[in-house]
Design goal:
Strand content: 15-25%
Largest sheet: 9 strands, mixed
Structural class: alpha/beta
Number of helices: 15
Radius of gyration: 21 Å
Distance between the termini: 50 Å
Oligomer: single chain
Strand order of the largest sheet: 2-3-1-4-5-6-9-10-11
Length: 446
Amino acid sequence: MRLRRMLAVWAAKISEKASVHIFHRQGVTWAGKIALKIDPDILKELAGQVKKEIFIVCGTNGKTTTNNMLCAALEEEGYKVICNHTGSNMLNGVVAAFALGAGLGGNLEADYACIEIDEASTRRVFPHFKPDYMVLTNLFRDQLDRYGEIDITMNILKEVMQSAPDMKVIVNGDDALSAYLAMDSGNPFITYGISEKVVDDNDSHEIREGRFCKKCGAQLHYNFYHYSQLGDYSCTACDFRRPEIQYDASDIEISDHLAFSVEGRRIEANYKGFYNVYNILAAYTAGRASGLSLEHYQQMLKKFNPENGRMEQFQIKGTKTVLNLAKNPAGFNQNISAVMQDDTLKDVIIVINDNAQDGTDVSWLWDVDFDRLKGANVNSITVSGIRCYDMRLRMKYVDIPSMLEADVEKAIRERVENGCKNLYVLVNYTALFSTRNVLKRLEGED
């Protein structure tokens, strides 16, 4: 059995390097697929070698940033961690994280594992190992043609939670859907959230997914919203309400950087986007809930550079360029908020694809508040990608002029040459890796 595992590890490592260096493609998924074909028990065996605890991160938005941040926090405390940094979060990507992290002898030397898992894929992963903790970031409507309605996702997560009854759920208590799921599962849970009103959300046109109580069906009353359905809520007919928050962020700043207090500590990060307060808080809560002091958490944040298109920064011929993933209405609205936090003149490129992994239904674009870009001091908007014409039509309906360039590299080069030297590139899922490659190559040309 060990020989088979060694062969699987070798094959995974060779496959991943060949994909990157020969085909210039992310080879993680193929590495995991090959390893699992050679040794169907490899994930169970390698996960069993983790010395301390396994964290998984689920939820519609924020998985990759939260997972990578938690990994970085554990490493800053001196631990060795297995992590699927690239965001490959289905079964093959999870297998690859462990196989690529193993030594050539087929064994794993790791204290912890931090594994992001696609919600629908949890059914395929949980038979191989049972995590110690699940971090549940939020539940928003996402790619209806792939995932269906939110109830389907909630049913899948409830099923896997109950298959691991000792697994602790670290849940965003400000999300009524996630909080109800944690309560209903029967698993022990730990909450994080924001109890003070931070932004004035009264005039928002966002779609609110959690308007009705999952326990009795009555309408929820909100004292205030943070964004989308996140906020301070209670049912108008039964006893369901926002749970008591154990890790509560307060004194929040969201200007040119982010800052908040929790457990008497002041935490600061040089990021934009209110949603990143939740990501930072989720990772902090996970580490603290597992019993770690996280004495070096602030030190980690100073060094932490979001990768793989999560507010990732590039410098291209004097143009500051920020790449960020935006794949559903809630995420895109928060991207727009982050762009608006930068009050200097800026160019924006929006790349929309409709490949299978994106979801072929792009009607979700009509639920995004693109009209807010009118007040964002935007120099230009360029639409690109496979569905650039749909995106241009969406801009037309909010009376925002846009330039069209289907070729992403040409669009970026044009704005670097003729723009205002401050560029935001917002992409949906399958545009992410190729656009990131373009930006890295252009950065290297300087």
